[in-house]
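Reposting from the mailing list since nobody answered there.

I have sequence plus structure tokens for a pair of proteins and want to know whether others read the tokens the same way I do. The first protein:
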Amino acid sequence: MALDQTKPFKIDVPDETLAHIRQRVIDYPWDAMADLPGWEPGANLDYMKELCAYWVSDFDWRAQESTLNQFDHFKTPIDGMDIHFIHEKGSGPAPMPLIISHGWPGSVAEFRDVIQPLAHPEEFGGSVDDAFDVIAPSLPGFGFSDPPPVPIGPRRMADAFNTLMTDVLGYEHYLAQGGDWGGSISSWLGFDHPPACQAIHINILTTRHPDGPQGIEEIAWAEYFEQDQIMEEGYRTQQATKPQTLSYAMMDSPVGVAAWIIEKFNSWSDTDGDDIESAHTKDELLTNIMIYLVTGTFNSASWIYYGRREEGGRVLSPEGNRVEVPTACALFPEELLPWAPRSYVERIYNVAQWSEFPSGGHFAAMEEPEMLAEDIRKFARTLR
């Protein structure tokens, strides 16, 4: 893979695409929707109407597009796919290469508030010695990256991202960070691709040990986890088993896509009750939604759930081998997937740093960017 195959990229959505999306929002048949209270049955009707009214009258995609285009974007062919990535080169003589991976229902827009502080810490009251070269790719099938020809899971995506970091960008060593699917991809990078991947930093536990929980504390966590996830299994089961069927409903329904995604941002974030905007602004929410819509990737983005099932599920190693590169675990209290006790995590990872935070949820880079960035810097100081 040659660097000369990598081409600059600029986000520039056709006016016709934006007009079509806007008209579909305007034409949505709100009268057909039942007015069920709260968020328990799903995306709240009153909030969806409020969000869509703002979408039609006040949301400025071009302004958000311009903000995202302040970063350097590229595309490069890997495994027959054009992979999109942001590449923000860090300050100083020796910035550490860092690949940060998003998940579902996120996008590279999640990292808007952490890329500059990580790449240029001296501009935010920090030290240039903590600088990173920040690489933020769109996952295959997500956003501005091409979809794979068939569904693939996080292990295959990790292979592609290792190729990006080593063969395309020429880094000998790098640090990998991620939440949601990015945490799973980072785990596979640490498992399959040392010494190039020298360490990982994760803010979610998506993996499992083949021997299961041991001892009272771990068993209690497993029982709580199972009960806690009952009301969150619907989307996951659908996308892991019949993603194509769901996509027929979603591919030309901007309001449907928005509802499917907004419900997750409300229930997975550290909000003040059901006030989703205590954690995210309308502009942040709609920018992320629009990335799925303007690229037409709702369908292929859901494939990763199907792909993980095809790859074998949550267990990294049936033999019980663990990720041996140093691993930092960042625990935010309102994470969707409750963390296991450290004793369990240490059977899957070589835990070198364990940080527990007072606030924040699943979308840590958006909700608590300063906390997350500083935790990454703290960990990286032990590796430089």
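The second protein, same order (residues first, tokens after):
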Amino acid sequence: MFTEDQIAIKDAIDKICENYGDDYWLETDRTGTFPEDFVKEFVDGGWLGIAMPEEYGGSNLGTTEASIMMQAVAESGAGFSGASAIHLNIFGLNPVVVFGTEEQKQRMLPPLIQGKERACFGVTEPNAGLDTTNLQTKAEKSGNGYVVHGRKMWTSTGQTANKILLLARTSPRDENGKRAEGLSLFYTDFDRDYIEVREIEKMGRKAVDSNAVFIDGLPIPQDDLIGEEGKGFYYLLHGLNPERVLVAVEAIGLGRAALRKAVQYAGDREVFGRQIGQNQAIQHPMAVNWMELEAAHLMVFKAASLYDRGQPCGAEANAAKFLAAEAAFSACQQAVRTHGGMGYAKEYHVERYLREIMIPVIAPVSQEMVKSFIGEQVLGQEKSY
């Protein structure tokens, strides 16, 4: 299925991840310590620029290669603690690559690829949820730039970021013929003189912080506007398909890690004088997990291949995210059940996998919204919400 060069990418990532075993990720989960040393290895190896243009320090490879890398990270047992630490660097600035000026690309991309800057994502808002067109954060013209006021939610790495990719409204929603117009995209300094960051205590992935962000008078220069004013939502959409693909492969990686733990325990654990894996009640659910994960894997890489060839892939990317989240959640849940009571103990790691797998189940788009997308855009049914 993969070329020799693509297999070599997986082998190289596996080698890095060998240095960061289960105990490392257990400790980051306990303490909430960001995996700086882990990320540094990816910076030093040039991996953060795997899908970025070569002229800015990247490797100019595709979504397929980036997906191979991110799946290997999650599958190593790093899960979303490891994957989320580098996720935004991989495709987060896709709007800059596609719609930015040459000056912006030269200024914005190399520092991110080199690990000199860390970016966060400012899109989700507490009162908008999945209705992105209803964002209320405002960017008002002021001199040679803008001043921003508003709130963002679930902003990852906000505790350490020095840049933000920010979506804000530059004209009122009701003044536009289309709901999605009037939103503008900026990539600018995360200036804490104007931004308050409050960490959200959450279910899993403690190593990578999530935050509520309060913006009060943040000045943004004109040069930090990406593309045309009012077109930011459309620029953001351009990067959603590869984002869904990456989230999906990370889910599959974590699902495979969970299945690996379950299989090992089922072979080692003996009850009533026999391995518990001999029992169909243990063995058959794991077999189903394997089939579901492999099927989702095929859909993921179909979507990645279509994207890399410049072909429409919205249905495939959304389906991949849906199938991967369902398959991986089932595998993580089964891993805990296979371990029995010990599945509830942190030292066996599968309870962490179960907590982390909730991320792709609910984000970046809900399973219900994926069903609606397929129903409307693929099956031609009327809008259901």
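Reply #1 (J.P.):
I read it the same way you do. The mean pLDDT is 96.
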